[in-house]
Amino acid sequence: MKTLVAALALCLLFLPVYQAFSIDMDKKIEEMEARLTKTEKQWMDHTQITESQKNDDILRELEAKLKDTEKQVEDLRAEVQGIFTAPVKGVYYFSFSANHRTTKPSGLRLMKNEEQMVSVYNHAAGNRHETAANGMTLQLEVGDHVYMRLMMNTWIFDNPSNYSTFIGFLLFSL
Ligand SMILES: *[C@@H]1O[C@H](CO)[C@@H](O)[C@H](O)[C@H]1NC(C)=O
């Protein structure tokens, strides 16, 4: 019972932080989508005016704006889902740690796009806390995705002590 209350308290502690983050991101996505709709309409309007009034430069500009806005919406969505999207071509370093209670196994994969780069796995063994960690230097192209994937039937644990982490930084661009 005590553990349950503690776990619940932890969830409640994290909830406002998570909610604030997701509301903020939802608002940002909404704003971006509104901009996308507006640009789409401008583009549509311009394609429908008479041939003599058509301006290829404006059309090209609108098309570029449309593409750019679409990409920004896509990147924002990925961010919300915890997926890192490389903004520049370069060499990055990523590391992660996963704490778990050993009543069940724990397994995590560091993914680059759909491919596993490195992983950790801890077998179930008794009932104590253990941490596994790994990391790797990766060369990424613009738009490459890096994220963590939990292995099937495994778990990780965390509390405000931040035992389970996923960090990355750009070492240098190429
Ligand atoms: C855990 O991470 C949060 C957010 O990054 C930070 O504010 C907090 O100080 C960290 N707590 C500990 C114990 O390191």
UniProtKB/TrEMBL annotation:
It is found in: Secreted. It comes from the Eukaryota. SUPFAM superfamilies: TNF-like. SMART domains: C1Q. Residues 1-20 form the signal peptide. Keywords: Coiled coil, Secreted, Signal. Residues 22-86 form a coiled coil. Residues 38-174 form the C1q domain. InterPro entries: C1q_dom, Cerebellin_Synaptic_Org, Tumour_necrosis_fac-like_dom. Pfam families: C1q. GO terms for cellular component: extracellular region. PANTHER family: C1Q DOMAIN-CONTAINING PROTEIN (PTHR22923:SF116), CEREBELLIN-RELATED (PTHR22923). This is Caprin-2. It comes from Dissostichus eleginoides.
